[in-house]
TrEMBL record:
It holds the Pfam family 2OG-FeII_Oxy_2. It comes from the Bacteria. Residues 100-201 form the Fe2OG dioxygenase domain. The keyword Metal-binding applies. This is Alkylated DNA repair protein (DNA oxidative demethylase). Its cofactor is Fe(2+). It comes from Roseibium denhamense. The keyword Transferase does not apply.
Amino acid sequence: EINGLTGLDYYPAYLDRTDQSRLVDTFRSIVESAPLFQPVMPKTAKPFSVRMSNCGPLGWVSDVNGYRYQPAHPVTGLPWPPIPQSLIELWSSCAPQAPEPEACLINFYTPGAKMGLHQDKDEQTFEAPVVSVSLGDTATFRVGGLSRKDPTRSFKLASGDVVVMGGEARLCYHGIDKVLEGTSTLLKNGGRINLTLRRVTPPS
Ligand code: MD3
Ligand code: FE
């Protein structure tokens, strides 16, 4: 719990170095078939500084028309690759009561990339938590309340850390202020990978 928010569970060093390296290999194989793309903001077309890809039956995209989940890569038109078993198992461990995840958004941050304060509310259900895995350089993460104006708290997310946002925390404002260059040797060329597992549609 952080900020008196229930439903935010932080598991520092949840993954050991071996598990982290395996996930980096998994990331590399996913982006071979579903290359990182540069999303743009709806209406303004301003590019995100974070590049993205997805795996799973649905993937999150943003373009001039809006934010949405879709079954195919916006550039290749191919279906997203499946969510790897290791991440399905991580979800089952961290969110044992939730239905299976349908989307895994992959965020790739180079030094200087950030993500403004936002809510994750493009899903059709908020019943399941969002489960996040950080790999590579440490980032400064900011989390607030249900209103944009609520005070925020910052903490660091390091490689191998897992954050589970469920319950009240599921719709909290949050963002990434900064990636701290040179804080991890996991990725040869530096940077940060964040994987977020999500349920998008209500369970049948
Ligand atoms: C708090 N990603 O992809 S992960 C995102 O590190 C996103 O790339 C950040 O915000 C990143 O939407 C933060 C931690 C996280 C994920 C989901 C949340 C925090 C959250 C949902 C609700 C509140
Ligand atoms: Fe988010």
